Amino acid sequence: MGRRNDGQVTEVLRYTAFTTTPSGGNPAGVVLDAQGLSDAEMLAIAAELGYSESAFLFPTGERQYRVRYFSPLAEVAFCGHATIATSVALGERIGQGTVHLATQAGPVPVEIVPGPAGDITAVLTSPPASTRPATEEEIRRTLAGLRWSADDLDPAYPAHVANAGNDHLVLAAATRDRLADLDYDYDALAKIMAELGWTTVHLFWAESPAVFHARNPFPPGGVVEDPATGAAAAAFTGYLRTLGHLQDGSSITIHQGVDMGRPSLLTCTAIPGDTRVKVSGTAVPIP
User: Fold this and answer.
1) Are 101 and 111 in contact (CB under 8 A)?
2) Are residues 87 and 196 in the same domain?
3) Which of 112, 143, 211, 273 is exposed most, by the fewest CB atoms within 10 A?
4) What total number of domains does the chain contain?
5) What is the pLDDT of residue 284?
């Protein structure tokens, strides 16, 4: 529960997304009715929870909501895992069907459907995805912050800045061991990301053309690492499609959070004839 300045109590739900167990996935705070909350109050709730993001909903019509996302440090335009968590929480209360979310990054429809084990799966359609090559200076500074060298990168996947609601630097690790051994300079990377407006750095290793392992440093949110990042996954899927590594209508799976002890599974599909991406996942309440 969170207490507002007017003394009223706001119900704050806790869900973890992209997992079927409370010990996995990425936790998010969810406020299904945030009417009357100020920006400072929403930020305070997010900071008290300490999760990478929390979602605050403002009902605007039948199955329609305006949503705002806050990390412990600042507001974020779009957050995939908090959207999945919120949609599952909604589905448990209003049933299956489509909900329409208005985010600062644009409209995000979410399909709430039955999951394979009788649970609920949420399938969000991301904001439009785009990507551009990273500059040599961006790569050099980021590698220094990560304490990586150019030899640690996989040349089959060039470094890009990808977007599907937020900017993410995409870097491919040459080996799974390189990805697993993540010990970066938090302050240095935080400075670079703040200057360039990046939300996370999406580090990944390609197990196969359709299966990837990822880690996402998230200093701008006050978090060392994100265990599941739906917005970065959508941006990454758009990146793969632009580079010709993924065909329209094809799907990939992303394993994230494994090295943190919070395994997460994200499924992403490139929508035919559209720059947007579908991101699917489950979520469960945190006791």
Assistant:
1) no
2) no
3) 273
4) 2
5) 96
Has residue 215 been placed in a domain? yes
Is residue 125 a part of any domain in this protein? no
Same domain, 186 and 236: yes
Is residue 118 included in any domain, yes or no? no
pLDDT (tens digit per residue) in 154-188? 999 999 999 999 999 999 999 999 999 999 999 99
User: What is the CATH classification number for the domain harbouring 232?
Assistant: 3.10.310.10
Q: Which two tokens stand for residue 246?
A: 């993924």
pLDDT tens by residue, 14-49: 999 999 999 999 999 999 999 999 999 999 999 999
Same domain, 157 and 239: yes
> Which structural domain, as residue segments, surrounds residue 218?
130-285
- Secondary structure of 108-177 as H, E, C letters: EEEEEEECCCCCEEEEEECCCCEEEECCHHHHHHHHHHHCCCHHHECCCCCCEEEECCCEEEEEEECCHH
Helix (H, G, I), strand (E, B) or coil at 48: helix
* Gap between the Cα atoms of 70 and 4, Å rounded: 16
Look up the pTM and report it: 0.92
Average pLDDT over all residues of the chain:
94
In which band, very low, low, confident or very high, does the pLDDT at 9 lie, cut at 50, 70 and 90? low
